Amino acid sequence: MDIFMEYLKCFVVGGLICLIGQILLDRTQLTNGKIMVLFLVAGAVLQAIGVYGPIVEFAGAGATVPISGFGYALAKGAIEEVKSSGIMGAFSGGLAATASGITAAIVFGYLAALLANPKSKS
Question: Which domain of life does the protein's organism represent (predicted)?
Answer without folding.
Answer: Bacteria
